[in-house]
# Entry
Amino acid sequence: MTPKQVTAFAPATVANVACGFDVLGFALEAPGDEVTARLRADIVAASVIITSLSGGEGIEFDGIPLDAEHNTAGKAALSLLQAANAPFGVELKIRKMMPAGSGMGSSAASAGAAVVAVNELLRLNGIRHFTPMDLIPHGMEGEAVASGSKHADNVGPAITGGILLLRGYNPLDAVEIPVPKRLHCAVVRPHIEVATSMARSLMPKEIPLKTAIMQWGNLAGLIAGLMKEDYALIGRSLNDVVAEPVRAQLIPGFHDMKRAAMAAGALGCSISGSGPSVFALTDSLEAAQKAASAMEAALRPYNVDCTEYVSKLWGTGPKLF
Amino acid sequence: MTPKQVTAFAPATVANVACGFDVLGFALEAPGDEVTARLRADIVAASVIITSLSGGEGIEFDGIPLDAEHNTAGKAALSLLQAANAPFGVELKIRKMMPAGSGMGSSAASAGAAVVAVNELLRLNGIRHFTPMDLIPHGMEGEAVASGSKHADNVGPAITGGILLLRGYNPLDAVEIPVPKRLHCAVVRPHIEVATSMARSLMPKEIPLKTAIMQWGNLAGLIAGLMKEDYALIGRSLNDVVAEPVRAQLIPGFHDMKRAAMAAGALGCSISGSGPSVFALTDSLEAAQKAASAMEAALRPYNVDCTEYVSKLWGTGPKLF
# Structure
């Protein structure tokens, strides 16, 4: 009997990673979204219907549309089904574990899980299917629905796992960077929303050449540090002199959280994606737990609730159920 | 008997390496400068006298001062002798194989050879001496005499060999990047001079953020490519969208040379340092020879003489005689 249903998990992701603005992202082990794709021979071929949108405790879904063309998971699945010339339609059930506008790649997790699930359905039914790398452009179609622009620094690592460098987009050139064994991540998500478009509008159109040189020196150092498993070099390189200085104002208590994470032994600490989540990288699970607690405590005086996540980096590829 | 004399070789270097403006450099096997340091107990302690400046065929030395304070090799040696609190003075003999203003790190090769030779003299005489990494700041003192600014993207790899990333300068953070086994380099040096100060003055004070993102995406890709020994990725990453577009005009026939190198199979081709030398990286000796010939032929219609160099990257540390 041919399987008619597949469920896939795609994780939260940290984009930018301090000095890697717009070109670097990595996947966490948790949290993440789950999407179930069910083969539907009774609807138009290569079409998508969304029949369920549910989520974790306290996760709001107001404003997430259910029609496939305007839903990140739906649009990503549509793009893939059309590329595969699928002879059947697909029904999606989406379980979200992160709210939108969190800076943790919420839309990317949904789009990523959708293309991974649909791709597996294609494979199991003997239809043309794709490698994780080749799924990224379809995930990007979903991302574009949410953010208005096609980018892959969240949806790329959400699909492939690990640390992904987006060297360029013409054509898409995604480079897997090996994950150092001891690397862990603490994320604190304040319960406020920062619209990506708002965070983008703060970015200057031009930056001083000297600033750019500092940023690319740090990014080159970060890539070398990750590949050498040199935690001290990773730490020295985790400096963002471009986005963080202008975006920190959007996050209450950011500077206090960062100071607390560093004092607790983090290698580095910066804004996750366009915020408001704040991430810290560490060289042990224990240090990540300490950094998360320290950041949470530093945020307390600002009267903003938050959720903490402590996780290894998610090194493996797509996860299927 | 304690040795009284040491000769050291330091190689030509290619700084910037397309996308690594101001932060990346690598060493060639040849050409390079040689400096002989001789212990002189009969002059002021920790002082330097230069008694000879000679060089290869056709290498001009007009304008290179012989007093140590204003000579790159002399100043670098002075800085090192003072840091070591040397109880003796040193006499230097300098043999230059590249003219100044060539974009091949001529002053860095002299400064690098000087500190390596003097350091060995210190070691052999039981005086405090330094690791190659710790010699770099003294080499930079020499570089500052020639260019007016302290930078290490030439003198760093001239001293350590290999590929060196200068992540930052406060404090100096030099990161060794492993040299891919098959990597070769072709350099064509047109017989014209480009003053570093002139090349610097062309650089804009600010650059578009989008341009900066392209540059750091490429640099991150280049570091990953070098460390993965992924020659195709190295090739895709060797793009300079910041300096090359404004500096190409200083080099007659640059675009024709680049086109010729790429057509001959080079991984990438750009300006060496601030020019006028042009370098191409390849994945074999044969390809480097072809690229050098193709660039030379492309330059011929411009009626500019040139010298070609084909070399492996110089992977090992200081060379002593």
About this structure: Residues 11 and 32 of chain A are 4 Å apart (CA to CA). Chain A has a mean pLDDT of 95. Chain A touches chain B through 40 residues (CB under 8 Å).
